[in-house]
Amino acid sequence: MDRSIPRNPTREVQIGSFFIGSAHPVAVQTMCATRTQDVDATLAQVIQLTEAGAKLVRVACDSLNDAEALEALSRKIRELNAPLREKINLSVDLQENYRVAEKIAPFVAKIRYNPGHLHHVETDIPWREKVRWLVETAKKTDTALRIGINCGSIDPAKKAEDDPIFASALEHTGWMAELGFERFCVSLKDSDPQNVLKINRLFAARFPEVPIHLGVTEAGVPPIGIAKSRAALEPLLFEGIGDTLRISLTVPNERKREEVEAGLALLEDVAAGRRTVTEGWKSEGLNIISCPSCSRVQNGRFVELAMQVHEMTQYAKAYPFTIAVMGCRVNGPGETDHADLGLWCGPNAVNLKAKGTLLGSFPYDEILGKLKEELDRLIGETA
């Protein structure tokens, strides 16, 4: 089926064996949930997601051990049969250790960096010099870049701005122009679909030539995670905004392909002219935010816990509270700080927060009871 969708004429950017922007079809991508250092499991998931229709599969890399695993993964991919091998394109997700880019760039099609993370290490080096170094690394290794801005890990210098995500995007896109680098795209992601609509429209109007990767971050478990994502992405696609996308869902490892299937279904509906949602998303009651399962999750019980939170809180669904269930240290602190109640999952315990205040860390088999106590307290305060 032809999934080409008329879009704004952004510039063409090559990412491995395919292109985004210009007249190229909107590409669906996703991220592995396996541990990067478990090379065989990661290879199996890369193959599964690629065969499901993902044009790009992202893995996390935050250490030299991860970089060595990525090199081993690249070798195993080169040993695959040609038709499959040529369809696989890897992206890497840098965290605080941005210097790892030099080690992994030869083995991936795209590197994603988060402006907020550039401030966590080598604090004496200005962020512009760090980005200059990333650009030079990308040029040397024939690699694309993504400026990935996320509401859960905002640049500290931008938090006081009216719209910190948009402000960060303006700054980094402007610096790319000064560096003369064009092989990049930008993502502006929020867990609130209304804000995703607003900031992507603003960015597309300001930089119509820059390809955009669309997504609602921490959309949650299906079907609500799909509904939230569609509420933002469908209107943008009908307006010609968006060159690649990801539907981020909280699902177990073996169901990761559902992200790809949901993305392809969205593109199919837009290509056919079918509008399936009203614009934006505004929860009339309880709003549960949970991040997608990925390789950064520190305990696999996170996904099960997110689903249990949905079930346990049904009695409070009419109340206008936000509960965030986060699986790792990357976006966990930011999202849980903004929620009425937040669960930030660690390797052996779950940090429970109320409006950003840490209430304590509790074992996985006790956290639901503690969460219910706090939820009942909030309900009592509104009575």
How many domains in all?
Answer: 2
CATH 2nd-level architecture of the largest domain: Alpha-Beta Barrel
Residue runs with pLDDT of under 50 for 5 or more positions: none
The strand line-up of the biggest sheet is 3-4-5-6-7-8-9-10
* Helical fraction: 25-40%
Order of helices and strands: EEEHEHHEHEHEHEHEHEHEHEHEEEH
Oligomer category: single chain
For this structure, the CATH topology of the largest domain is TIM Barrel
How many strands, what sense, and barrel or not for the largest sheet? Answer: 8 strands, parallel, barrel
CATH class of the largest domain: Alpha Beta
Broad structural category: alpha/beta
CATH homology-level superfamily of the largest domain: Dihydropteroate synthase-like
How much strand content do the residues show? 15-25%
Q: What's the overall average pLDDT, rounded?
A: 91
What would you call the shape?
A: globular
| Number of beta strands | 15
What Rg, in angstroms, do the CA atoms define? 20 Å
How would you explain this protein's 3D organization?
Helix content is 38%, strand content 19%. By secondary structure, it is an alpha/beta fold. It has 2 domains: 13-271, Dihydropteroate synthase-like (TIM Barrel, Alpha-Beta Barrel); 287-382, Sulfite Reductase Hemoprotein, domain 1 (2-Layer Sandwich), CATH 3.30.413. The chain has an 8-stranded parallel beta barrel with strand order 3-4-5-6-7-8-9-10, surrounded by 6 helices. Strands 11-12-13-14-15 form a 5-stranded mixed sheet, with helices on both faces. A two-stranded antiparallel ribbon has the order 1-2. Helix 1 crosses helix 2 (64-78) and helix 5 (127-141) packs across helix 6 (164-179).
